[in-house]
Amino acid sequence: MGLDDDAREYHRRDPPGKLEISTTKPTNTQRDLSLAYSPGVAVPCRDIAEETDRGYEYTAKGNLVGVVSDGSAVLGLGDIGPLASKPVMEGKGVLFKRFADIDVFDLELDTGSLDSFVDRVAAMEPTFGGVNLEDIAAPTCFEAEERLRDRMAVPVFHDDQHGTAIITGAALLNAVDIVDKELADLEVVFSGAGAAATATAKFYTSLGVPADQITMCDIDGVITPQRAAAGDPHEHVSQFATDTDAIGGTDLADAIEGADVFVGLSVGGIVSREMVRSMADDPIVFAMANPDPEIDYEEARAARDDTVVVATGRSDYPNQVNNVLCFPFVFRGALDARARDITEGMKVAAAEALADLTREDVPDAVRRAYGDQPLEFGPEYVIPKPLDERVLFRVAPAVAEAAVADGVARRDLDREAYVRELEDRLGGSREAMRAVLTEAKRDPKRLVLAEGDDETVVRAAHQLVDRGIAEPLLVGDRDRIEATLDGLGFDFTPEIVDPAETDLDPYVELVYERRKRKGVTRREARDLLYENDALASALVAAGDADAMLTGRTHHYPSALRRPLQIVGTADDAEFAAGVYMLAFDDRVVFCADATVNQDPDADVLAEVTGHTADLARRFNVEPRAALLSYSDFGSVDNDGTRKPREAARRLREDPEVDFPVDGEMQADTAVVDDLLTEDYEFAELDAPANVLVFPNLEAGNVAYKLLHRLGGAAVVGPMLVGMAEPVHVLQRGDDAADIVNLAGVAVATAADE
Question: Catalytic one among 86, 92, 347, 385?
């Protein structure tokens, strides 16, 4: 099927459309229903009647946006009516939820007049925390927004105007820096005089571009004072009317000659190579007509030998201007500040936050999503990508702070606490990791990265320094590491440990002493230390580094070998084990062992349970441990079920074990409250287990991967427990974020020693 047929099937697939309503509170019992509705619901109703701000406390108002349209200017389809616009409005709701966890009611209104439209939207103020106007034709959209902003005490935002303005404003802030120009000196030409173009031109003046240096053109040519006075095309462009004598002509080609910036919000194919060549040195070309830009990306770049910064509305080229970079995050900040309006200062704050984020290293997940597109700050990367989740953490707080500064916020937000709140919206693993990373930042330790000449490891090292988590030592070939640093353009000078230039003598003796009874001679110990993993392990064992990571570029068993041989297990431990933390929306669980011990006996299972419980506490999780099997408390009796049963008995009888533990039990018994507390009321656990100890490696590995892939759990790990020093083995192919998380665990553990 082609795209058209695929889109039809996508939308009609049962249930039709793209949105549904779901409950956020339990509705399983009679008491639940009496709280959700009558008689319990009367209590919050009375409270809200006494104090209206309690509506934000007791209802969904504070996270609910109305997406409202009359269907008069839908995409490039024109005036197709309210019902035909509904798929677009539902899609807008999908983007609100996906990128900022904002709920939406889409409202398609058939009103017949501007007055009726404004009255109906304004009457819904008690329902919504904000209103997003969408796909309303100019100039009606200007007056509708203005009148609704005057009448309503919640933010009203016409995204077609301001979303484009904010994103291109961010791109402009970066582009002028790249081409070494000043905003106050720019000559800017617009093609298009609709809602988006007009709002963008006005926003550029807020950023510092003088209004008299902006020329606007439409299908009839340059908008002159005479045309503006006559209301052609509409009064909102009058401040940008240009005397044609100043530019020597009346059409777009005349206007664009000598211009520093071209902004296209009109139709495709109207700008030629020759027109781009006529622009000033190092021009900026934002050709945003969609799907066909005013000039193709390649055409604009090829027109000149100097720097040409080009942005389009297309996702298959660099620098895509897409409003999803703006509206979810602007509303998130406005809603959370309980703003009465979205001010010019809030828009500027959003643009500046986007511009600043572009200059930072891009996460691996974003790089993978965009394939071969360049994602380093420069002419081909002047605005972030929509799939970069950091946009939420930068733009929303900036908008909320601006709302407070501009006096439109009902609520003041502590930025650090607010960022934590936003992170928690994206999953429980962030909340759990935050405690560990905060602890690591209090006392950053020397962390040796055994694969120091791997680009992803270098990028992770840069992030560790930038975030104050660790002092990285990169083990590897110095020339390769320095070439990687140069290629990434980091202002970052890490400590490099090159085996070829390091005095190995102190470490030779250490390795020899630990391995001589395993057949290793001094000469072989020296040769061994030319391996990155061996040298990194020796650095930790000798106390010259506090913690170690390895394993990104080779398989787990081979990566684990040298740390086990040289660092070894702790004095009070006989066995190491691999633990994964899996974070779901409503709980965090720790799964062991999934990487090390293939067929553990009761001794191993008991020791691994204790190590994993200690690890859980590091994440501020009070452990409740279950030894898992396919049997419940003796329902099956064989060698396999006796091992976890015996391990659980030993732990229960050990006076030094200070956490509840039981088993053997089936997995659902361990994690389902009713099964555990009703069917097995004698069990030591009074709530579902959060430390799950599997009977063998095969079961543990299979289970954690199913939970991750089918259960949607976010995963941190594997974390190696039982080692003499904080050593962790990454999964092959881990990205920089994974490395940073595991580094945080290693450093926090080292801080306790």
Answer: 92
